[in-house]
Amino acid sequence: MKKIFPEEMSFAVSTKNELKLATSSENGHPLSLKSLPSCEIPFVLSLGGVLAYLERLETGRNRSHKQFEGLQRAQAEEHTLETRIHKLRLLRDKLRAEVKQRQARVEASAASAVPDQTLETSEQKDLEAKQESVKAILQAYRFTGLSGKLTSQGVCVGIHTSFEGNLLDSYFVDLVIQKPLRIHHHSVPVFIPLEEIAAKYLQTDIQCFLFSLCEYLNAYTGRKYQADRLQSDFAAFLAGPLQRNALCNLLSFTYKVEPGGQSFPFCARLLYKDLTITLPTDVTVTCQGMDALATSWEEQRVYHENMFRTTSLHKVFTSFSRGEKLDMSLLS
């Protein structure tokens, strides 16, 4: 029997883990297990088991390496997640602290705003009450020359003047209903003491403010109306131009009782110290060209003074034009 040495063997393992043994014989034919004596077969099988065992070890090592790599990745991800959770918890605690601080500030501001809101509510009620008062006044006195309409900021009051049944000029005052009340726009002439009237009544009594302003405007337009009528309707009685100031509270003129006649001219000076009335408070009538007047002329001068004090200017000249006799009761 021929002995087989290890260097003469080569092993091949198939996918089915079957061991094939190839030898180099003398005649060059492959050597199979069948051709081997029974005493040599265990040795060949022991070599095949070693190789299979090594293959299993290598497979297990690869599997263990892959599991180790997966474990490392899982640990890295776990660490990343723990870091992120820690940051989120810190952010949560910070936000909670900010929310508590903001709530505390809101509660403090709300507590301090309660008195302010009460004050604002009270002021608003006062303004609404004043607005309703103005509306009531305008409705009650619309036939006395007052009218008005509500605006976005308050109320616009119209003042329509008249004298002896004649409708004259109209003016307006735009009031802003707020605290304090104030005048936004107006068309009142500059010589009417509007600021003085407003300082006296506007904040305390709106009704007195409007009535006082109406008195001034009606008196002004009434005096102006009388002067205009004298110039337009009785120019023939005038011996010169009528002199008057813008407020029409000082009039000066020369006139004759008989238009175109030979009567001596009289000089009249009318002063209206009270700007809320339409009749003069001081009247001075003199006769030009005579140092010592006859009794009849003196009586006539006194009569004229009393007429100017008690009667509208244009009505005095209406009586002159009619040639009415002296009313002796006015001479006393």
From TrEMBL:
<dbReference type="Pfam" id="PF09496">
    <property type="entry name" value="CENP-O"/>
</dbReference>
<keyword id="KW-0175">Coiled coil</keyword>
<feature type="region of interest" description="Disordered">
    <location>
        <begin position="107"/>
        <end position="126"/>
    </location>
</feature>
<keyword id="KW-0137">Centromere</keyword>
<dbReference type="GO" id="GO:0031511">
    <property type="term" value="C:Mis6-Sim4 complex"/>
</dbReference>
<dbReference type="GO" id="GO:0005634">
    <property type="term" value="C:nucleus"/>
</dbReference>
<comment type="similarity">
    <text>Belongs to the CENP-O/MCM21 family.</text>
</comment>
<keyword id="KW-0158">Chromosome</keyword>
<feature type="coiled-coil region">
    <location>
        <begin position="71"/>
        <end position="105"/>
    </location>
</feature>
<dbReference type="InterPro" id="IPR018464">
    <property type="entry name" value="CENP-O"/>
</dbReference>
<protein>
    <recommendedName>
        <fullName>Centromere protein O</fullName>
    </recommendedName>
</protein>
<keyword id="KW-0539">Nucleus</keyword>
